[in-house]
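Dear Dr. K.,

Following up on our conversation at the group meeting, I've run the structure prediction for DYW domain-containing protein from Coptis chinensis. I'm pasting the input sequence below exactly as I used it, so you can double-check it against your construct before we proceed with anything downstream. Let me know if the numbering doesn't match what you have in your notebook.
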Amino acid sequence: MLECYAGNGDGDSLHRFFYGMLIRDVVSWNTMIAFYVQVGDFKGAVEMFRKMQDNGETPNRVTLVSVLSAVACLGALAQGRWIHGYIDRNGIELDENLGSALINMYAKCGCLEGAVQAFDETRKKSVDTWNAMISGLAANGQSLEAVDYFSRMESASIRPNAITFSGVLNACSHGGLVEDGSRYFKKMTDAYGFKPDIAHYGCMVDLFGRAGLFDEAEEIISSMPMKPDAAMWKALLGGCRIHRNLELGEKAGKELIDLAPDDHASYVLLSNIYAMANNWSGVHEVRTAMWDRGIKKPPGCSSIELDGVVHEFVVGDAAHSQKKDIYIMLDEMAKKLKVAGYKPKTQEVLLDIDEEEVKQSSLGHHSEKLAVAFGFISTSPRTTIRVLKNLRVCTDCHSVMKLLSKSYNRDIIIRDSNRYHHFRDGSCSCMDYW
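The predicted structure tokens came back this morning:
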């Protein structure tokens, strides 16, 4: 009955039935946790896991895989480490499923040393285990390491699958490894007999677009046996933004809106291209279309986990209980940034605003800056700051985080909607290539 309600998405009936049960076994709890993960309520999944333990029920491998998935999406590293410790304390062997879930959790929390440890502890490594490691390294900007793991995988006689090639091609794209990416794309067909799917073609468009090779990117799109999807146009649009190819960017943006008319990112990306060209009538036209279709851009939100508690911030947030100390720290950060030669990148405030001061104020209160300021005042020196953001980090915040990592001698890790950024000693793992 629980599985029936969960499968039909009937949360109300599911909860009534569950809490009406006189006896609940591990399968019952697993069904509830999996439902929370299924509907994207990751905090609810973790809370259900805690209730399960409070009720004296012992988790099994299925439980742990589900809750690790929730923790990964929350970026809640402390909770993930607790689960890893639970696995160790109870002598639970890491099989391919549990090992892969643990690797994925650490990678999504930006903790690659934990991912490597989990990988090494997994005795029987399946293709999924290797894929989790390769994809995790790629997402965290460790492109050469991801390519190395692919080579090690082949040496271990583990046959890669389509997901493996998506991971390694993604690594090449984020690392600017154009020749390697082209070679792996060819190898996928010649050596392993895989026909590239739209995700693989999308990786190649992203690879060429990021490198500014737009002729090659358009050739891929025109020669592939299927129509480009929204993800592909979005990748090309990203490359156009990096290299300021505004003409092609406009074309890609319009194609993207046609394919994803309900996605706010489609409109925002095209609006950004127009703003970069100072085409404010174009910006107005795009935003009018958003308004007419009822599309709203979600506010930027950043979260940071401290002592098992997740603190969330939005731009200009004044609701946090420590807001006074946070804004004092923001002022201190601004002074250090000024000494370091920082100049606000006001072009990132893509609005038709002339007042430079208003633009700078908006940039200074972006949610990730508030989260980092809170991290600075709440942790001891040299502690790594880990922030999760729901939108793409802007160029200004990216520059700020590089300078702050050096000024405060702190590692700062930001996971945004696009990728992971590891800031250390004034540089970023993405090499400003994102």
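Two things stood out to me. The chain has a mean pLDDT of 90. Residues 323-339 form the longest helix (17 residues).

Best regards,
J.T.
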